[in-house]
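Cross-check.
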Amino acid sequence: MSALTFTLTIQPNQRVDMSPLVCQALQQRELSEIAAMPLHCGKKTLRVDELFTISGSDSSHIIIKNSFNKLDFIGKNLAGGRITVEGDVGAYLGLGMLAGSISVVGNTGLYAGAEMKKGYLEINGNTGDFLGGALPGNKIGMKGGLILVKGDAGARVGDHLRRGMILIEGNTGDYCGSRMIAGTIAVMGTTGQHVGYAMRRGTLLLWNTPHISASFNDCGTHTLAFLPIIFKAFATLNSRFAESSTAFNRVQRYAGDMAEMGRGEILVKH
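Predicted model, tokenized:
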């Protein structure tokens, strides 16, 4: 069977809620049923076939073609299967994702991977603020899984991160790792101001020395036994991280944020 493919034919002026089009919701549905499903677009409700042409039948693999930056909530609560997006996407990509994988060829908006619990999210372009973060008013962000970004990320990467791993090949904005509870964030590029702000636990792996707040203690250089294990896990990724098996022989370690629990760490390539 060929993948269930949605090809965008028009670009509406208002934002589109794509959350109904996930693998588990389309199982056992005929194409005619899928075509008639409603999608919220601003104040309107449009049928799927008013925006997309539909082909294929394998709902375990969904392909979205001609995507653009007003398609929000793609892969929301995805519980299995695979979604491939050709083009840019809007906000809340993979929100609350439970399992499966999502791959985006282009750029994404705000809150990509927010509060995801398991699964794999790959962004080949750039992404907006609050990657893997918590929604406004919530205290726990990403709870598990893996996010890989091959471009740059915005501010507040991993805000309230609880568990899981975020890998960024490019640069990040300010407050990377802010209010982290646990988990790991690795950044090959540069980071903005206030790295690790109010982090309680967790690890930030940085290829470049950031601006370190006064509330972090310099613990000197170390050779840490767990780092080769982490880098070995990167070897299976289609990423520059797969080539980093010996990247961190020794690290400069900073402990903090001492304004919080102080059990977090920033590890910088030495």
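The two ends are 50 Å apart (CA to CA). The first strand starts at residue 3 and ends at 8. Passed to J.P. for a second look.
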